[in-house]
Every structure is written in structure tokens, then in C-alpha cells.
Write a structure and sequence with these properties.
The chain is an alpha+beta fold. The chain is 33% helix and 28% strand. The chain contains ten helices and 14 strands. It binds biotinyl-5-AMP (BT5). Biotinyl-5-AMP binds next to helix 5, strand 5, strand 8 and strand 9.
């Protein structure tokens, strides 16, 4: 009911009488008043006047489904969106919904996470309303061997959306970090649920620092993390940014499925800051130094080591040893 009242107020953009709302929705004046109060608590500014009724003055910059939907040009991603105030991890929540059969493109987004996850059980700092902490459910009809490509699809989408929407020169660090001037602004965690050779679902979790001030990061992140507000010098509205992210992700996801990985990889190479760089590589087995010079057509990083041999890196961590390539 609250949603229906909001839709009517949004559509009219002028005074709507209490009588119209009551008759149109078949509820009492008291019920209408209760829902208007609820909307105000959510941050909607609604004016009320005895003879005129109600008028929506302003909407909050909170990724409620109604806010994200209005003006969303993606046709699949984000059309089923669950907004939560607080959750342990949006990835865990998305996996639960995916197991229950939610459609592809379902988005779970939270204002804050109290158990946000990175890879290998690392923690992800997700302060309330400071960023976009969300997960998208995907059901790609691909072979298991091709599933790591989704991380690169996500990275290309996020970096493109950041650049187009804010002008901040985001670059991609192999395989899943988005950096600005060497500092991490976004992390991507892709998880997979599969049986034998069939992908049941994948969840792409994206944590993007939006309005976090320098002093708001915990000490261990202060020198290695940044946010869009720090880089652009202004407050960034999260709802339109989320729409851009969903639009880019949908575009690149279906280009990947319809045209193949090569188009994604080509874009990825242009936005990558790990290529043409001396790097230190950390895998579960070893640590070595070398020169990252390309990715192969599966997305594996190619590193030339000191003895001239070429290592093909499918999983692991890379530290950049010199200034980054121009972004
Ligand atoms: C990642 O892991 O970068 C993947 C992060 C994915 C987070 C999203 S938020 C929505 C969804 N729900 C989840 O629970 N997760 C996803 P990794 O490459 O392992 O990097 C983790 C490391 O990044 C940490 O050990 C810190 O050093 C650093 N870090 C943690 N929080 C950060 C932040 N907000 N900004 C920048 N760096 C951060």
C-alpha cells in the first residue's frame, strides 16, 4: 500500500487529495495517513495541507526499488530488487534467493553489511549508506570453465559506469579490483553454484565506496582505499549511480553471452592497470616477481619472469611494483 501511494504521488507531481487516495486504493483516511508517515520515515518529503491533500517534494537517495526503477533503462537487471537496512552479506542473501529460484538479474542491496566478505574469507568494510553494497544473481548458460570470465565482465561494467557517471578515472587491477590512482575503490566477489557441468547460478557481489571521507576508513584501509567522493571532490548520489552500474552490467553481460568473451577482453585490456607493469605474484604455492604483459584469451594473466619464462596466472594476487600505467 505504501508503495502504491508513493507511485500515485510520483505520477502526479502535484497535490493529490486524501479523498482520491482513499477512493482509488479502497482504504481509510487513517490508513493513508499511516502510510504517509511511513514514507516520511523512509526519507520522503511529503507536504500535507488540509484542503489540498498530499504532495511529494523530494525523494531520498536510498536505493529503494521504486527509486531505482524510475528511470532505469536496464530491462532485466534490477527489476527484482530487494533493499535491506542491514545484512551480514548481500552475497549470502542473494545465494539464498537464487536457491529459492529468483529470476536472473535479481539484486540484493543493503545500506550496511555486518559480515561483508572479500575473497578467501577476508572482510569487506561496508559502512551505512557510504557505498553501494549489492549482489546480482546470474544464470549464464555457459560451461563451468568459462565462469571466471564473469569477474571480468563485472569489472569492465563497474569501471565503465564509474568513468561515464562520475568522470573518475577508474582502472582494473587483475583480476577483480577497481582502482583509482593505485587505491582500491571497489571490490568484486563472484561466487558459483554448479552441479557437474551445469551452472545453477552465480552471484556477482560488488562493493563500491561512494561517499566515504578519508577519516572514515579504518586505519588499515586509510592508505590503500579511496571513494568516489574523495576522488571527485563532491557528494555522489547513489541511486543514479546504481542505475548506471546495472545498465552497464546488463549490457556487458549480454554482449558476453551473445558476442563472446573477446569483446569483453578487448575493453578490459583498455581499462587494465596491471598490464605493462612489474608485478609480484602471490599464489597459494609461491611468490615471484615478473612483468605482466598481457592476458590470454581466457582472461589468465601472462607474466614474464626474470629467467624469461612465461607464467600463466589463473588465480592469485598481484601487487603492482611501480607506478601504474596511465588510466
Ligand atoms: C574483494 O575481495 O575485493 C571483494 C569484495 C566484495 C564486496 C562485496 S560488497 C557486496 C557483496 N557482499 C559481500 O559480502 N561481498 C560483496 P578481496 O580481493 O579479497 O579484497 C579484500 C581486501 O580489500 C581486504 O582484505 C581489505 O584489505 C580491502 N578492503 C576491505 N574493505 C574495503 C573497502 N571498503 N574499500 C577498499 N578496500 C577494502
Amino acid at each position: 500500500m505504501k508503495q502504491k501511494i508513493l507511485n500515485i504521488l510520483k505520477r502526479n507531481q502535484d497535490w493529490v487529495s486524501g479523498e482520491t487516495l482513499c477512493r482509488g486504493l479502497g482504504v481509510s483516511r487513517t490508513a493513508v495517513w499511516k502510510h504517509i508517515s511511513g514514507l516520511r520515515e523512509d526519507g520522503y518529503q511529503i507536504e500535507a495541507k488540509a484542503n489540498l491533500g498530499y504532495r511529494l517534494i523530494a525523494s531520498p537517495d536510498v536505493p529503494f526499488p521504486a527509486e531505482v526503477m524510475s528511470g532505469l533503462s536496464a530491462t532485466v537487471f534490477g527489476h527484482n530488487l530487494v533493499h535491506l537496512e542491514e545484512v551480514a552479506s548481500t552475497n549470502a542473501e542473494a545465494k539464498k534467493l537464487a536457491r529459492e529460484g529468483c529470476p536472473e538479474g535479481t539484486v540484493i542491496i543493503a545500506e550496511t553489511q555486518n559480515g561483508g566478505k572479500g575473497r578467501l574469507g577476508r572482510a569487506w568494510f561496508s559502512p551505512r549508506a557510504g557505498g553501494l553494497w549489492f549482489s546480482i544473481v546470474l544464470r549464464p548458460p555457459v560451461n563451468l570453465i568459462d565462469t571466471p570470465q564473469v569477474t571480468m565482465v563485472a569489472a569492465v561494467s563497474v569501471a565503465t559506469a564509474i568513468r561515464e557517471h562520475t568522470g573518475v578515472p577508474a582502472g582494473i587491477k587483475w583480476p577483480n579490483d577497481i582502482l583509482v590512482d593505485g587505491k582500491k575503490i571497489c571490490g568484486i566477489l563472484v561466487e558459483l553454484n554448479a552441479e557437474m557441468d551445469r551452472v545453477d547460478f552465480m552471484v556477482a557481489g560488488i562493493g563500491l565506496n561512494v561517499n566515504i571521507g578519508k577519516g572514515e576508513f579504518p586505519p588499515e584501509l586509510a592508505d590503500i582505499a579511496t571513494s568516489l567522493s574523495m576522488e571527485s571532490g563532491r557528494h555522489i548520489y547513489r541511486v543514479p549511480l546504481l542505475r548506471s552500474l546495472l545498465q552497464q552490467f546488463e549490457t556487458w553481460y549480454y554482449r558476453w553471452l551473445n558476442e563472446g568473451f573477446a569483446v569483453v577482453l578487448d575493453k578490459w585490456r583498455h581499462m587494465c592497470v596491471t598490464l605493462d607493469c612489474p608485478v609480484t605474484v602471490h599464489t597459494v604455492k609461491e611468490t615471484y616477481s615478473g612483468y605482466a604483459f598481457d592476458v590470454d584469451d581466457t582472461g589468465a594473466l601472462l607474466v614474464r619472469t626474470r629467467d624469461g619464462s612465461v607464467q600463466r596466472l589463473v588465480a592469485g594476487e598481484v601487487t603492482l611494483r611501480k607506478q601504474l600505467r596511465k588510466q
